Amino acid sequence: MIIKTPHKPSRRERLLAMLADGEFHSGEKLAARLRISRSAVWKIVGTLRAMGVEIESAAKQGYRLPQPVELYDIERIRESLSLPYLDRIAALTALLQVDSTNHYLVDTAPAAPQLAQLCIAEIQSAGRGRRGRSWLAPFGSGVCLSLAWSFEESPPNLSALSLAVGVAITRALRRFGGNDVQLKWPNDLVWRARKLGGILIEMRGESSGPTRVVIGLGLNVRMPSSARLELAKQQAALITDLHEILGDRTPGRNALIGAIIEELIAALQVFERQGFEAFAEEWRSNDALKDANVRVLCANESVSGVARGSAPDGALLVEVDGKLQRFVSGDVSLRAA
Predict the structure, then answer these.
(1) What single-letter DSSP state applies at residue 132?
(2) Can you give the CATH number for the domain in which 320 is found?
(3) Domain range for residue 18?
(4) Cα–Cα distance, 71 to 15 (Å, whole number)
(5) Are 123 and 53 in contact, with CB atoms under 8 Å apart?
(6) Is 319 domain-assigned?
(7) In a domain, 69, yes or no
């Protein structure tokens, strides 16, 4: 197993670590600890602000983050993983900023089958959701994680992998008390009809033979109100986060990432042998659209009916005028009865 950061911490990363407690730190003390001038501290703060990190400043007090942030910590993540899962990790890379954690792994040479490559990032400049939408994740507000995995042979019903991954994430959240998180076809995590997170899977390979998948997860942990409004505008959906669901029981991001990694690796191993069948019943019990009146928008067509779960290959089943129709892609929304 290789667990790494790409280089030793930069001055920007070290400055963020000093500010992570949410308290004011004077420019003079920050400069002394970094062994640079106060002017250099000011420039680094400006760079971080340009990257999207909100840093407050006050005369005679210094700089601070609006609230404490648990930064990604490779060692703490490693300590949260049990040995069987540590042995299944080829690489875990933590970045301050990246265009997309999925892109990072897609461009990385594959590991051997049955070994995971992981990338986490504090800031994504080009994170994506489904259908090319952007994924907004303000600094320190959530989890941006991607996992690459190679199957020696393409598993049965590989197209249903996003549903199995959704089940794995709900299992991880249940470890911390998130028992009523549901799944909205094909790859959203929701709570009380509000979006908690999303999954994006990219595949490379053939229908019969080796296949590599890159699984991207965006999960809201503690979203600023401004970001909630922006996401709602982009996705026409209300947003929630783990802190709203769990309150004081909300886990730290490193413990959360450890649980997600374990559940994803376990699910991928089972999926390779058994396909979606091993997850179908649990997915149905978490189905946020079960027997609901829905509208499916695909291409330029809108179809209304009653959601009737998913097919073995992951397609959405909708009863329309007494007949089942299959949808392999599209946007689904609830509608009035």
Answers:
(1) G
(2) 2.30.30.100
(3) 2-64
(4) 12
(5) yes
(6) yes
(7) no
CATH at 233: 3.30.930.10
Q: How many CA atoms within 13 Å lie on the side-chain side of 58?
A: 7
**CA-based radius of gyration for the chain:** 21
One domain, residues 60 and 112 = no
Whether the per-residue pLDDT at 116 is higher than 80: the answer is yes
pLDDT at residue number 77: 96
Q: Are 115 and 141 in contact (CB under 8 A)?
A: no
Q: Is residue 151 assigned to a domain?
A: yes
pLDDT in tens, 200-253: 999 987 656 689 999 999 999 998 877 777 766 766 578 899 999 999 999 999
Q: Please, which residues have CB within 8 angstroms of residue 252's CB and are 6 or more apart in sequence?
A: 70, 76
Residue 18 lies in a domain: yes
* 271 and 304 both lie in a single domain: no
Query: Letter for the amino acid at 9?
Result: P
Mean pLDDT value across residues 54-80: 95
In terms of domains, do 82 and 223 share one? Answer: yes
Average pLDDT over the chain, rounded to whole? 91
Paired strand residues for 204: 212
Tokens of 14: 């070290």
Q: Are residues 52 and 146 in the same domain?
A: no
Residue 134 has pLDDT above 60, yes or no: no
Q: Which of 151, 289, 169 minimizes the C-alpha distance to 208?
A: 151
Q: How confident is the model at residue 135 (pLDDT cuts 50, 70, 90)?
A: low
Tally the domains of the chain. 3
pLDDT score for 128: 54
Residues annotated as catalytic (active site), given as ranges? 130, 195, 335
Q: Which has the higher per-residue pLDDT, 90 or 236?
A: 90
Task: Fill in the amino acid letter for 149.
Answer: W
Write the Ramachandran bin of 99: left for phi over 0, alpha for psi from -120 to 50, otherwise beta: alpha
